[in-house]
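pinned: reference chain
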Amino acid sequence: NFYFHLLVIMQNTCIMPTLQIRDLPQTLFDALQTSAETNSRSLTQEAIVLLEKAIENEERKARKMDAIKRM
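pinned: its structure tokens
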């Protein structure tokens, strides 16, 4: 019972979500790999950075659109 609770605690606090991308075009993979090498990052690190930037950009655009609508 102790080990079960320890496992549950570990699953809730220590494990990061995983994303698997299927059917990734080779050209996109190559561009990601090149970008990762250029920035001295792993493929995973580069994908996370680019996703974060893309999401921030979309959020910024949405805020600008909201501001324009309020004018």
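why pinned: The radius of gyration is 19 Å. The first helix runs from residue 2 to 13.
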